[in-house]
Amino acid sequence: MTGTAPRRRGRPSRTQSADAPATRDRILAAAREEFSERGYDKTSVRGIAKTAGVDSALVHHYFGTKEQVFEAAVEVAFAPALKVRDTVLEGPLDEVGERMTRVIFGLWENPVTRTPLLAIVRSAVNNETAAAVFRRLVAAQLMRRIAGRLDVPDAELRTELAAAQLVGVAMMRYVIKIEPVASADPEQIIARIAPVVQGHLTGP
Amino acid sequence: MTGTAPRRRGRPSRTQSADAPATRDRILAAAREEFSERGYDKTSVRGIAKTAGVDSALVHHYFGTKEQVFEAAVEVAFAPALKVRDTVLEGPLDEVGERMTRVIFGLWENPVTRTPLLAIVRSAVNNETAAAVFRRLVAAQLMRRIAGRLDVPDAELRTELAAAQLVGVAMMRYVIKIEPVASADPEQIIARIAPVVQGHLTGP
């Protein structure tokens, strides 16, 4: 009715079968973006498909349910953390606090890794399914592995309280953005936080 | 069509003008409930009005916009924290870490005060308006007042890092519920956290 012909011809479907790994990656990237911006509740498989330029059925084909897409996106987001986990675990135990603090800060300071972390935090805080994914991945794969290296009886609780200090700083600096912590020099914060993390992990 | 006459006769409006303070309190209680359960984004003035059994116009009359209802609900939620703030500030400075830790834990352990705290955290993490309210109330009224008592140059940053340890534990214990911290004995956690809070506030 308004002049030029409509350009809609159904959803785009370029390279769907020709280049499966690229399509899968594009869906994952779209999922990360959607979950980061909207959180778990407001993200739909349909929205992810639209952002990725594929049909919803293809999202289900590669990943299954929305929860499973979320889990895959979180796994990708945590891949750098899991890689550096070994860095955290290697080296002298009396410097593990500083290594852990630097690694986590590095992930938050880098916009590429910050976006998916924000998605995870926002989703886990508001949705039990997302919280369960967080517990499964972060608690089991990251924290319990660090706890396994500590030679103390309450290693898991210690690791969690150390992680809590880092989670709390991340919340206040990157999520809620309270000053002065939001704009403070990272080294100033690391200098104060690393000994606390070390104390939780190996202190008396 | 299905037998008995419908009971809907418009929204209930009992005691609206007769008992203004009670109505105002009922709206606030409804707001706390709605914000806790749904978070800021998904809560509407209409929903609050419905839960309170009043007309939406009355919510606007008493509080103004949704942001202002939220701010009022947060203020009520933080009233116990602001009351105990003076408890935290009174007494010897070398025990301020333990007082602050016990006060914050007390608020989280009590279901009556936990519900609004959950509402604040969930909302502030996902919504910039709610985050601004959090910054205004919590940062300005709670943390800066504690910082004002510390005789150190970086008092505000120290107070925020102390608060970050408490916020992080609350996130992992009450919001995301990671084990073993979620089920640990409060005294066991306080014993480990209080010295950290003290160290942030008055340590070297």
UniProtKB/TrEMBL annotation, chains A, B:
Q: Which residues bind DNA?
A: 44-63
- Keyword set for this entry? DNA-binding
List the Gene3D superfamilies hit by this protein, alphabetically. Homeodomain-like, Tetracycline Repressor, domain 2
Q: Which residues form the HTH tetR-type domain?
A: 21-81
Record-linked InterPro entries: Homeodomain-like_sf, HTH-type_TetR-like_transc_reg, HTH_TetR, Tet_transcr_reg_TetR-rel_C_sf, TetR_C_16
Q: Which SUPFAM superfamilies match?
A: Homeodomain-like, Tetracyclin repressor-like, C-terminal domain
- Annotated segments matching region Disordered: 1-24
Q: Quote the biased-composition stretches of kind Basic residues, using this chain's numbering.
A: 1-12
In its UniProt entry, what is this protein called? TetR/AcrR family transcriptional regulator
Q: Which organism is it from?
A: Streptomyces ureilyticus
